[in-house]
Amino acid sequence: MGDTQDWTAAPGAAERARSVPAAAWSCAVTADGVREEYVGAHTVTEDGAVRLAVPDDSALFGAVLCAPRQEPSALLEFADVAPVPVRDRIRARLFLSGWFAPFEGTLLFRPTRVVLRRSAGAVVVDPDEFRAARPDPLAAAEARLLTHLADAHPDAVERLTRLVRPESLLAATRVAPLAVDRHGLTLRIERVRTHGDVRLPFHTPADDVTQLTERVHALLAQASAAARPRALQRQRADGDG
């Protein structure tokens, strides 16, 4: 079920694609018929190359050393996982095709094809745009911010639902923070068999955590001035009875 608001400012595809590996803790690598999963082993350079620290005895390292020109074709896959437990927790997947080469005791991967796959479909991102883009400034802090909001401030999450259209809350069983970026906060609205997402845009983008705190407080102030959605009021009354 699609739940939308009038204005849904959001990062572009290239920025979104750069944000996924910046926040992801693991990646899967397929090269020369070898597939391995690496946890906490990658970093992304300013120009979008992926630097991977792998053991010298790994099959991937051997494949790179033995390949012609020491540059085997490879596929890297990153999963964008919502930090708060929700239904359909994987928000997006990023696929990078390109070449590996040894670099200062690590492997350096340069993508030549970039595909971002979300629930709305797959988007092919121009490699030059991927290299020029920068990850969302909140990407690295998003997991900590959202889990704190969900665990420590459930009352604030409920208050934010006052900014959601009442029809989007019909039959809702749970509302949880799904994502946050410099442009806005996204809520996941779960129902018995379906779910939908609603985006609450900030009045101006947030470039750091301090600015994000101000933007969220502005949303909460706006929500405090609004009446609680009648759909949610009915659910509360039913639950209290």
UniProtKB/TrEMBL annotation:
InterPro entries: DUF2470, Haem_oxidase_HugZ-like_sf. It comes from Streptomyces argyrophylli. Transmembrane segments: none annotated. Residues 142-219 form the DUF2470 domain. Pfam families: DUF2470. This is DUF2470 domain-containing protein.
